[in-house]
Cadherin domain-containing protein (Gambusia affinis), 310 residues
Amino acid sequence: MVLLFSLLRLGVLRGQVSYSVPEEMKSGSVIGKIAHDLGLGVDRLKSGKARVYTGNTEEYVELNRERGVLNVKQRIDRETLCGQTMPCALHFQIILENPMEFYTVTVEITDINDNPPTFERGEMKYEITESALIGARFVLEKAIDDDVEGELDREKASEYNVTVTCSDEGVPSLSSSVTLTLQISDVNDNAPVFKRSSYEAYIVENNTPGLSIFTITATDADWNQNARVSYILMDSAVNGVPVSSYVSVSADSGVIHAVRSFDYEQIKDFQFRVKAQDGGSPPLSSNVTIKILIQDQNDNPPQVLYPVQT
């Protein structure tokens, strides 16, 4: 252990990656494509004898060097691993040799509803006077659920159905049930998200002004007006000229148009930013960078620089 700790200190921390998986996944289930996510090749995993190092903790994951993926090694029960602590996560390193380097990995274990509510006692008795008024209320002992309590989230569940059953103590016992439908109203708690972290597009010079270059898209996980996305060209300059004189963006569709005809000999590329904003109050937004590259055409004849001697 001392030797391995010394090697870790001598190695180079190359990067880190995070995953999120539900508890109770079957052994062998894929957690993530670790080689791809860390920018490593499968050959490097093999030649570097890549392995998982967890310290003194139990190993819940294993590395498949042939496929470059992390797998579930054994059953993970969130309640056993973390109790009521949130968030619940596994922290470990991927170690490679020749040269020695290591990567930090975090796997968050999310809760599933795998535990029923339970009372502390299997049987409870209460004395109620016969003079108790109709509608009088009596407090029962609380029931405990080992699953994590969480806030309501319309994006995860927009509706809940709860069945309430009432039964009497007659002989025979009679009962009736009613279903309550709880609809979760939306609040604007999600900003628009672009499909890509950045965009790159090409346009051939001598284009027609107004030409559609390409389309950007952002989606919002909220509902109705809160999910309505509009696109706004952010103020900036290209060679001292407002970017709005080069391109425009359709507020509703996200289509990028060329405002002018481009000349490769004058400008070869430029970039700008577009904001996606939702219709909530207050609105939430996110930005993305777009790079436009001008493609050359053979539109300039050769020029004679010096007189030809005859």
About this structure: The two ends are 86 Å apart (CA to CA).
